[in-house]
Amino acid sequence: MTEILGQERAVDALTFGMGMRSEGYNLFALGPSGVGKSSLIRQYAEKQAGKERVPSEWCYVNNFDDYRKPRTLEMPAGRGTELAADMSGLIVELGGAIPAAFESEEYRTRAETIEEGLSEQHQKALRELQEKAQAKSVALVRTPVGITMAPVRNGQTMGQEEFNKLSEEEQKKIQDDIAELQEEMRKTFRQAPSWQKESREKIDALNREIAATVVSQALEPVREKYYGLANLLSYLDRVREDIIKNFQRFLPHDKQQFSFLALSHPRESDEMPWTNRYRVNVLTPREPNGGAPVVYEDHPTYHSLMGRVEHRAQQGALVTDFTMIRAGTLHRANGGYLLVDAVKVLTQPFAWESLKRALKAGRLHLESLGENLGLISTATLEPESIPLEVKVVLMGEAVIYYLLSAYDSEFEDLFKVQVDFNDRMNRNGESQKQYARLIATLVHRHGLPEVDREGVARVIEHSARLAEDNEKLSTHMRAVIDLLHESAYWSRQRQEDATVTAADVQRAIDTRIHRSDRLRERIQEEIRCGTILIDTDDEHIGQINGLSVISLGGFSFGRPSRITARTRLGKGQVLDIEREVELGGPIHSKGVLILSHFLGARYALDRPLSLSASLVFEQSYSGVEGDSASSAELYALLSDLAQAPIRQSLAVTGSVNQYGEIQPIGGVNEKIEGFFDCCLARGLTGYQGVLIPESNVKHLMLRDDVVDAAASGQFTVCPVRDVDQGIELLTGIAAGERDGQGRFPEDSINGRVEARLIEYSERMRAFGASARGEGEEGS
Fold first, then answer.
1. Which of 37, 141, 308, 411 is deepest in the core (most CB within 10 A)?
2. What is the mean pLDDT of residues 495-505?
3. Is 628 annotated in the active site?
4. DSSP designation for 554
5. CB neighbours of 105 closer than 8 A, spacing ≥ 6?
């Protein structure tokens, strides 16, 4: 079976939502847990994704202007991963090629030529100065502190004594010549920095030329490989310029001290490892033929959704760079589908608001949560945002959807498609055949033994029981799968690779109940031994067996409870003792108020209702909720008013409205079985049974032993339409209808009740008149 069973509405909504590309048409899948929301949505998302193109790979690369603000690079699927490998290879290649180029004979020769040119300029200037000095009989003398000048006579430098013996005129001439030469020498030395600058510029130009040649040759295959990707070629141009500028970083450390290389060697930067400057951080690698991504996020925290920037410890501080940016689920699902459990994302701090903000903006902006909250203060990044195009599917219970619709003003703008999963489907001949195919599919998918025809029929019956309706089948696939697994277990206990039979299915059902019914057995035991007072025979006035359901840990069972009513003269008040002591819930109190108004409307048309009545669940020590006992409470009141005993062999469930009609209730199977177990323990007499609303007949999916007892006449399930029909069955006395004069028959239940209420009214009137008379006499 490939189609989805019983979820036509959900399938239509999924088909529409997956195909609708307008803004805000994200999906919310609502329905009870276990109906197959996740598997169905994933199946449809993968089917739709397979038809769509593979989205781009988003990469982060270095921003050479400001490393704290990495740039994004969009690449076709698979090409980003290739580029990352190519750039890593480029770094390795340049690590060998650049040192080799700068160690070559050609480079050394050209660099030494530049240095020799600088030295030659110095030497030429010195020679010219020396020639001028010789012409003036002055010698240039090198000393440890520099060059000095001295007069020359007969080829020998003159000492101070000899110089002093010269005439003043000769001394002055020599001093003037030396001063002139010193000024000439100063002019020459002032030109030296410009010569050095010119030489350095030549060295820089040579270095750039050599580096540019090597880098261009290494980058050319990369450029050719990605020709046509304009954004990438622009980035490669920036890479080329930066490597040329920082070529020294590719040289071994001992080689960086050559004078002609050290001239242009930049200050070492510690913002990131230098080899990382040219790497490519592929944030979202894609398979070229993989279709659009379908991602399920099981733990939707803020960082798992939005991504994060990692840090490393360096000299006691935390530092980072663009290579430490990590993708979130939204990055991986970008261009495809993201499936998230609604409760999980709502319960994670900041996750829900961040998800909505990203969907509204249509961009993914990676932020440091700790930095925003002021919890940490450390070096961090401000990466360029990435365009976001994703279809988000939230999954959760219906109550979550309705609460978000009511209390989150942005919710309906962002999640416009409601995918409503049904927990039941119609039961007919065709749907049962489809269900049988579904069982076969599940058996095949999970590798279980085959199920024979009777076993399949029993699984379908149990599905109707789960749906609490013999005209419906449950779509709760988890329960069906669990039942098949447990049935297969018991089948294997009989024989290896045995076919699963109806007996195996029944044993799986029985053992599951047995694992959970300790409290039910305890209650039945207390009823048998008389600790909990429940009568299953005899007749009593104002006393009736009501039925309730207890649900614990996914297991529900029925519990009989004794309900009693007492009436007396009063002011028309029906007192609910459960409500008075705050053990009764609002729905239970509503049921009591309805039946009190029914009494007034039926029996006190032309006189006040002079009644005071009390109702109580005997031996009830916990809360009572629901209105399914309101008909039983009304029967107990009518019994006490009419002084007509009720058969204790019958139990009652059903709510009543103001017109006396019996309305349907839930848990009818568990309630019937709970009273049946009580009767069975004491012995079936053939007179025992349960009164249920007529409209609940279609919900009957009783245990086999209850069905067998009913078929043999040992136990009865009696559907009733209204209060009159029910009170007749309980008391054996006709309810009675009003005649032409508006009177009930005297011997009928209604006649007795009305007579009692008239009596109460007359007594109340007489009591009032007597009280007034005594008051007037006293005055």
1. 37
2. 86
3. yes
4. T
5. none
Ranges of each domain in the chain: 8-55+286-420, 106-214, 424-516, 534-762
The token pair that represents 249 in the structure block: 């970083």
Residue 141's pLDDT band, with cuts at 50, 70 and 90, is low
pLDDT tens digits, residue range 719-741? 999 999 999 999 999 999 988 88
CATH architecture of the domain with range 534-762: 2-Layer Sandwich (3.30)
Q: Give CA–CA dist 511/509, Å, rounded.
A: 6
> Could you tell me how many residues make up the chain?
779
Q: What is the DSSP letter of 36?
A: S
Helix H segments across 341-428? Answer: 342-346, 351-361, 369-372, 398-407, 411-414
Q: Which residues contact 305 (CB under 8 A, 6 or more apart)?
A: 297, 328, 329, 330, 345, 351, 354, 355
408, 412, 639: which is closest to 652 by C-alpha? 639
Q: What distance in Å separates the CA atoms of residue 29 and residue 468, rounded to the nearest whole number?
A: 24
Query: Do 29 and 10 contact (CB within 8 A), yes or no?
Result: yes
Give residue 275's pLDDT band: very low, low, confident or very high (50, 70, 90).
confident
SS (H, E, C) 486-520: HHHHHHHHHCCCCCECHHHHHHHHHHHHHHHCHHH
Edge-first strand listing for the sheet containing 27-30: 294-297, 337-341, 391-396, 27-30, 417-420
**List 202, 391, 472, 671, catalytic entry:** 671
Rounded to the nearest integer, the mean pLDDT of the chain is 85
Active-site residue identified among 628, 630, 631, 748: 628
390: region left, alpha or beta (phi > 0 left; psi from -120 to 50 alpha): beta
The predicted-structure confidence for 414-435, as pLDDT tens digits, reads as follows: 999 999 998 889 999 999 999 9
Q: How far apart are CA 698 and CA 548, in angstroms?
A: 19
Q: What fold does the segment set 424-516 form as a domain?
A: Helicase, Ruva Protein; domain 3 (1.10.8)
CA–CA distance, 260 with 269 (Å, rounded to integer): 21
Looking only at the bridges linking them, the beta strands covering 688-693 and 650-652 are parallel
pLDDT above 90 as % of the chain: 45
Determine the CATH number of domain 8-55+286-420. 3.40.50.300
**Please, are residues 760 and 569 in contact by the beta-carbon 8 Å criterion?**
yes
Instruction: Measure the CA–CA gap between 499 and 449, rounded to whole angstroms.
Output: 6
Residue-wise pLDDT tens digits, 379-388:
578 899 999 9
Question: End-to-end alpha-carbon separation of the chain, Å?
Answer: 92
Strand (E) positions, 263-321? Answer: 281-282, 294-297, 308-309, 312-314, 317-319
**Token reading at 68:** 């704290």
Residue type, 537: D
Nearest to 404 by CA among 24, 28, 758: 28
The position carrying tokens 């690449």 is 75
The pLDDT, as a whole number, for residue 577 is 62
Q: From CA 35, how far away is CA 401, in angstroms rounded?
A: 16
Q: How far is CA 570 from each of CA 96, 657, 757, 764, rounded to the nearest angstrom?
A: 108, 23, 10, 8
Confidence class for position 299, pLDDT limits 50, 70, 90: very high
Euclidean distance between CA atoms 272 and 64, whole angstroms: 12
User: pTM of the entire structure?
Assistant: 0.79
Furthest C-alpha separation in the chain:
171
The residues facing 156 across adjacent strands are 153
Instruction: Give φ, ψ of 678 to 5 degrees.
Output: -65, -45
Lowest mean pLDDT among 46-50, 120-124, 263-267: 263-267
* Cβ(74)–Cβ(307) below 8 Å: no
Contact (CB, 8 A) for 418 and 401? yes
The residue with greater pLDDT, 764 or 271, is: 764
Alpha-carbon distance of 627 to 655, in angstroms, equals 6
